Amino acid sequence: MAVAVSYLDDPERRARLTIAEQNDLFRRNFANTPIWNGELLQGQVLITPGITALPQHIRIRLMAAVIDFRAFDAENDVWEDHSFGIVKLGGVEAFWKIDLLNLCGDGFGALTVEDAINPMLTRRFLTIGLRSED
Length: 134
Prior knowledge:
alpha+beta, five-stranded mixed β-sheet, globular
């Protein structure tokens, strides 16, 4: 008899889904103050030179597409953390990605799972760029 395993029984998966929830909240609210469980999700948005060079009306529509992005699947979200996406607008193809930085000064990639889900210890960097700049 097969036993159903809930994602709640897998601490790593539960952490990835928590990070996904935080990343979605940050990405959808970066112009405001994203609050998750009473804590500020710290971070900033970085725009590449290619995006900056686009006409303003295209930049605005691309930003809206990044904010509204929900097309996560097994191919573009292999870690289930909602940290990457591709948006297309007319002939413009852009990417966005979220990197997490440990505020304790250890640098990129040095986060433990416990640190990554703690808004007090993690800063998010949302980068938006043209696919040609990737």
